[in-house]
Amino acid sequence: MNQKKTNLLRERLLHGYNQELDYGGVSGERIADRLNEIATIGRTEDGGANRPGYSKEEVAAQNKVAMWMKNAGLEVKEDGAGNLIGRLEGKEATRPAIMSGSHVDSVPNGGHFDGVLGVIAALEVVEAWNTIGYQPTKPFEVVVFADEEGARFNGGLNGSEAMIGNFNMEEKKQLVDKEGYSFEEVLKQVQLSVEGYQNAKRDMNEIELFVEVHIEQGKQLEKEGLPCGVVTGIAGPCWLELTFLGEAGHAGNTPMKDRKDALVAASEFIYQVNKLPKEMNDTAVATIGKQLVEPNGVNVIPGKVTLYVDIRDIYQNTRDVLVDNVLNLAEAIADKHHLMFNYVEKTRVKPVPIMSDKQELLAETIEEMDMKPYKLPSGAGHDAMIIGEKVPVAMLFVQSKNGISHNPLEWSDLSDCVQTIHVLKNFVEKIQ
């Protein structure tokens, strides 16, 4: 790969960058350089990123970050789950630490900002402090969580789950990737082990707060014309597998009045589900993105339809009410069409609220920088969702162009990224 091609991301980031944002030790050029360097690892033919969790590409990206951490004077270690941690001692070393970071793994052919920006943002705070000669009172830790995206096993957040000890090892041992490698075998490929993973649990009393910078992966900040926003909570998903059971029959010989068409019922259900979240609040959502029709023949009345409902909200009580409402709707539609109906709950994860005092302090920090504070929920899961089960968390979103994510076209302007890093730095200094 020639030098010009490897620097394309850097050049695009710096084009139009507002140099006046280089103050307080923060360097836009350094951020651009580092985003560009990580982007060269696992780069795809489409210009995207392919760094699956627990792959040589993820390890290479972590090693690059570890080098930057050491050069910045951090004490660097890796735990048994593959999480990378760089620690800057505070003036009072026995105090619980402030932790910040994200991940460097990606989905197949993903973008160059998801996760990586949060890692570079946290490290840039340390670089800025080194430049201006500032030492925090409390220890500050930069973390790179392993396998957040879950591209290998269709279920991520493995690093953060190990850190808080929230996992079922027997279930993980049953995981197999598309190449036939088990979870244990995949760990061994990157010099890790099941035993090490099990022993990665940390005493979370050592952490006072985890704050994560992440791209929005939506369009709200772009519509508002704002570089960043304050996350109010992280939605917890509930996934339902619903099945409508009717009777398959010949499409030509079965009169309309005698049919038990499972797809007709499922279609009505899909249309009606779209209305339910609006009856709850502005943060609840419900999505049906997968459907299986059987027998699935052109001239056969559908006798069975299985579909999957993804229900989310940042508030557990309204999320759970919405789940009940979805199930009640499915049952009523099945009765109306004289069908059988059943369901299986595939997962139900607690939403993670972000404490109002942390939201207000972030909003105050943004306002002090002559920007409009804007609050918005996170519909996607993040490492902060897992860590938030044990310690308080806070999140900042960076504007995403056109809301595109998990795609080579994923983009956040460098000026927006740098302004958000200033917010992170000032916020961490406020809570010393």
From TrEMBL:
Cofactor binding note of this UniProt entry: Binds 2 Zn(2+) ions per subunit.
Keywords: Hydrolase, Metal-binding, Zinc
Protein name: Zn-dependent hydrolase
Segments forming domain Peptidase M20 dimerisation: 234-336
Cofactor: Zn(2+)
GO molecular function, one term: hydrolase activity, acting on carbon-nitrogen (but not peptide) bonds, in linear amidines
Pfam families: M20_dimer, Peptidase_M20
NCBIfam families hit by this protein: hydantase (TIGR01879), PRK09290.1-5 (NF006771)
Keyword hit for Hydrolase: yes
Residues the entry annotates as binding Zn(2+) 2: 114, 149, 406
Binding-site residues for Zn(2+) 1, renumbered to this chain: 103, 114, 214
Family: Belongs to the peptidase M20 family.
Extent of the signal sequence: none
